[in-house]
Amino acid sequence: MTKNDVLKKLADGEIDVDAASALLEKLSPAAQVRIKVTPGGCIGIRGLRGTNSQFGLSIRVETWEDLKKESAKIDKFVKEHAKELAEKSAESKAAKAAA
Description:
- The chain is mostly helical.
- It has two domains: 1-31, no CATH class; 32-99, no CATH class.
- It has helices at 3-11, 17-27, 61-69, 71-80, 90-98; strands at 34-37, 43-46, 57-59.
- The chain has a three-stranded antiparallel beta sheet.
- β1 and β2 (43-46) form a beta hairpin.
- α1 (3-11) runs antiparallel to α2.
- The two termini are 36 Å apart.
């Protein structure tokens, strides 16, 4: 389904605004994360920063497991240093300013 398909369904009364918003959110670039096995045997992840990003993330399985074990520590660190950490998106900056 494309954005135009969602808008047509909305215009035709087949779906309401909330349903259209949910469908459009699923179509957003952030929702288009792709995961594959890289030629080097790593976990390859693309689309985290939207479809305009030319760089993906490659991570070895062992490192992924280590990160998962440390997720609470990482989350705590991010919260403690939120004002120091750079954020690229305007939405993130606006949310940080409102907090």
